[in-house]
Amino acid sequence: MPNTRFGNILEQLAQVLGPNHVHSASADTAAYRRATYASNAEVLAVVRPGNTAEVAAVARLCQQAAMPFYAFSTGRNWGYGSATPPRSGLAVDLGRMDRIRAFDDRLGHVRVEPGVTYARLHAFLQERGGAFWIDAAGSHPGCSVVGNALERGFGHTPYADHAAQACALEVVLPRGDVIETGLGAFGPAKARDVYAPGLGPALDGLFFQSGFGIVTAMTVWLMPAPERFRAFFFGLDRTVDLPRAVEALRPLRLHGLLRSAVHIGNAYRVLPSFTQFPWGRVAEREPLRGAPLDALQQQYGVLAWHGSGALYGTAAEVREGTRRVRRALAGVASRLIFVDDARLALARRMQPALARLGARRLARQIDVMSPAYGLLKGVPTDRFLSTVYWRKRAPAPPDPDPDRDGCGLIWCSVLSAFDGEQAGEVNRIATDRLLEAGYEPAVTTTLLSARCLEHVISISYDREVAGEDEAARSAFESLLEALVAAGYVPYRLPTLAQGFMQRASPAYRALLARLEQAVDPARLYAQGRYTVGGADDVPVAS
Amino acid sequence: MVIPKPETSLETPVITLAAPPLADDLHSELAAIVGRDHVRVDDSSREFHSRTTEPRSRRCAAVVYPGSAAEVAAILRLASRRGLHVWPFSRGGNWGYGTKNALAPGAVVMMLERMNRILEVNEELAYAVIEPGVTQQQLHEHLQRHHPGLIADCTDSTPLGSVLGNAIERGYGYTPYGDHFGHLCGLEVVTPGGELLRTGGAPDGCPTWHTHKWGTGPSLEGLFSQGNFGVVVKGGIWLHPRPDSLLLFTLDIDGGEQLAAAIDALRTLALAGTLKSHVHTVNGYQTLSLLQKYPQDLLARGARMPDDELAALRQRYGIPEWTAVGGVYGTRAEVRAAKATIARALRGKGTLAFFDAAKVAQAQKLVDLWRRSQGRGLTGAIAKAVKRLVTRKDFALVALLPEMYGVLLGRPTWSVLRSAYFKSPIEPPMEGLDPARDGCGLMWLAPAVPMSGAQAKTVLSLAEPLFKRFGLNMSACLTMMNERTLFFLLGIFFDPANGDERERAAQLHEALQARFAEHGYQQYRSGIPSWAAAEPSGDAGWKLLAALKQVIDPTSALAPGRYQIGQTRR
Questions:
Q1: pLDDT tens digits, residue range A490-541?
Q2: Nearest to B238 by CA among B200, B188, B185
Q3: Does B206 contact chain A (CB < 8 Å)?
C-alpha cells in the first residue's frame, strides 16, 4: 500500500503491534478480499492485534490518519461477506485474541474473546467435565462464538438465540475509548456476567449488527447439560405442509413445552447433504426442478421438508414433551422419530450392516442425522459446510474453504411472525423468484422464539462460471425486494445489501446518524456495515 | 378523563425544594398544545404532584397531561425552544425511587396517563400493544374479558401502575414473563427533538415489529429504558398463555444457612428450566409489614423494632425468617413432574407447601366467610377449618394466599402495597392506595447479585449492620430475576413526620448505596436519592452516554440528569 495518503500509519501500526502482525503485501491480504460472492472493496492492509489495548491503539491510529477500518472475529461469515470489508480500508483481524478469560462452573457462563471458536469452547467445556453445553451455529466449528452472536446468529438448543445469551460486552469505540456495557460499566461488578441490562440505558443492543464499536470480549451464558435429552426428526410430504407444521408447533413453543429452535429445511436444503447438483441430468442454466428433482429426492429418500428439534429436561419433562410433540405433529408430519444417545449408537452400529444389506439410503441418512443430532446438543460440526459446493463440478475437498474454492453463496435471511401462512408465503416468494432466476430455492425455516420465525434462503452457485456473480447478485436483490415488499424484513444483512439500512424511516435514520456522529464523527469505522451515514465509498489512493 | 383533585390526606411532611410556577407565557404555550384543562400551574396542584415517599421533594413548575404522541412531541419541541426541562411519567407510581419528581425543582412534569388505550391484542402470537397510561388493572381486566387465554405479568405494587412505565424502568413480577423489559418488543418513541420513531427501523405494517426484539441493524430499545433519550408512547408487550395448571409454592426458611442452601437449589432448578417463575424470597419483617402496623410505642420514639420483639411477632403469626414464593406452570403432567423435582431439590432447605387452584379457592371461601361473619362468633370455627383444610398459619397470612395466587396469574393486588403504610398514621384503604398522596415514608434500593447462597449471605451481611446503625429495620426481598441473578430489594420504611428518623433514613440509603458500590454490587435501578447522592462516574461509559445525550438532546429538554445522563460533575 502506498503510504502517501495515510501517512506512515503502517510503520506506526508495526511499532504498536510488532511487524509480524501488520501485513500489506498483496499476497497476504488476498484471503481477506475473498468472499462467496464478488466484493469490490480493497483491503489496504491487515493487522492482527493481540489484546484490547492494541485494538484501541489501532483505532486511534486510524483516526489520526483518517484511515477507514473494519474489524472481524474469524472472518467465516460465509454468505454474508466472509471477512471482506464493506468499504475499502484497513482490516482488523481479531483472530489472535482467543483467550477464554473466565469460566464459572456454578452459574454457567464463560467470558470469551473474538478469536475463540465453537470447537475451542466446546473442547474447553468437555475437558472440564461437560456439565455445560454451548450452542453452535450449524456452519463450521471454526466460526467465532463472539462474531456469530454479534451478527445475531442462531443455533439449535434452548440457547439458540445467541444475542439473547450474551452480555457484558467489552467494546473499543471507533475513537479508541474502551467501555463495558451492563454492570461492568461501574468497575468490577459482581453481577456483571449474569445480568445484561446493567444500570441506566441498556447499551448492548447498540453493538450487535452495528458499526458502533469493536467488541473485544463478551460473556456467554451456557446451558447446563440436561438430565435427559431426546432429539426428534420429522418429514413433511408436500411443500404446502409447512404452514400446518408451523401452526402445530406454535402452542408448544408458546407454552414452553418446546424450548429449542426447531429447524425445518426444504428438499433443496437437505439434498446437498447427500449429493451435488446433478450436472448432465439438467440442462445448463436451468435450476433443478420437476422430474429430475423428484428422482433425486426418491434416490436419497428426501421429502419436501425435514425438521429437527429436541427435548431437554428431567425424564418426566422429556416424556411429557415427547407426548406433546407426537400429538402436535400427528397427521401433519410423516416419519416422526425420536432419537436419544442409545438409539443413535445402535443405529451407528447397524450402519455397516445396513450398507452391506443394500439399505444404502438408510445408512446415508444415519450419516446425515448424526451431525444434526450433535448440533442439538451443541456439538459443532463441519459436516454441512460441504453443502455449499452444491453447484461446483468437483466434490468438496477434505478441507473445504468456500472463499478459496470459488463457491458462490449469498444468504437472504428474513423474519416473519410465527405464523403458518407467513411461512408459506416466504417460501412461495423464494421459490418463484429463485427458480425464475435459475437457482434452487433452498430454504430453512427456524422456529427461533415463541413468536418469530427466521427464514434463511440461500443462493448457491459456482463463482468460476463467468457472469454468475452478477446473475446471483441480481437474483438476491430481486428476492430481497420482493420479500421486503411483502413485509418480511432482513434478520441479518450481507455486505452487498447494506443499502437496506437507508430504507428505515427518516426519523429512525436520523437518530442512527446522530448516534454514529457521536461515536465516530469522521465516519471511519465499519462504514456501510449496518450504518446509515457516509453512503459513498471512501476514495482510495492506489 | 378526570385528573385527580389535590384535596386528599396528608401534605407531604418531607423537606421541599421550592420552585415558582411556570411563567404565564409558557403556560399559555403549553395550554395551546394540550388545552387549558390539561395544564396545571396552581400551587395546590404543584404541591400534590410533587409529593414523594422519599425524604426530599422537588416542587415542579407545572403539570401537563398530553393526550397523544403528537402533543408529547409538541411539548418537547417547546421545551427545546424555551429551555424547559420536561420529566415524563406514565402514571407516577415510582414510589421509593423519586415518585414523580424531577431531579431539580422547577421542571415540567408530564403525565402520560391520558394516553391509556389498549390498541391491539394478538391472541395467536400472544402480545398486546398499549400506551403508557394503561394500568396493570386495566390490562388484566381487558384480557379477562376479551382474551381469557392470555395473562399479563404484573408487579405486586399498585394495580394502577403503568405497565409500560414499569417495563421501561425494568421492573419485575412473578410469572415466567416477570422480566418486564425482556418482554417488551417494538416501541414507538418521541425523541427529545420531537420526532416520532419506531424501534427496529422496520417499515409500517411489518409483521415482526412486536415479535422480534432486535430488528435489523443495531437494536435501540435498550437506549430508551432507564434513561432520558426518548418518551415511549406505545409499546408491544408479550403475554403469557394462561397455563393449563398452576401451583403456588411457599418455602419457609429458617436462618442464613438454610437460606443459602435454598437459593442454590432454586438456581439449579431454574437453570434446568424446571422453575420458570421469578421466585421472591422475603424476610420476616417484610411479611410482618403486610399484616399489621408498626407498633405505636416504637413509632412514637422513632425506635427500631428490637430483634426479640420482631421474633415474638413473627411467632404470633407463624412467619418464618424467610419465605420464598413461586409458581409452577404448565400442563398437568408437567406440573406434576415439576412438583416432584422441586420437592426433591428443596428437601431439607425449609418447609415446602404447594397450593393448587382448589386449595386456593377453599382459602378464598373461608376468608370471605370470615370477613362476613366478623363479630358473629364464628371466627374461631373458621380459623379451625382453615387450619385443617389449608395451612396451619395465622389467618392474616392465609388471606394473602388467594392474592398471591392471583398475582401468579397476572391479577394485580392491593395487598402488598399495604406495607408502605407500615409506619403511617393512616389506615390504608382496601383499594386505591397511594403512598405519596398519603405521606408514607419509603425508599427502595436493590443491588443485582449473582444467584448463589454465598453471595446472598454476603449482601445480607453488608446491609444488616447498616440498618442497625441507623436505627431502622431491614425489609428485604431476594428475587430471582433470571437463572443467574438475584435482585436484593431493600425497603427503608420510615416515619417522615419524625425529622430525626427521616434523616436517618436518608443517611441509611446513602450509606447502603456507598457500601454496595464499594463491594461491587450495583443497583439494577435507581432513583433521585441515588442520583443526587453520588457524583457521576466520569468514566468512558458515562462519557459515551453524555455524548449520545448531546447529539440526541442538545438542549437537555428531556429529564436532564436522569440516571446521571447529562449531569455535570461537580
A1: 999 999 998 899 888 889 999 999 999 999 999 999 999 999 985 433 333 3
A2: B185
A3: yes
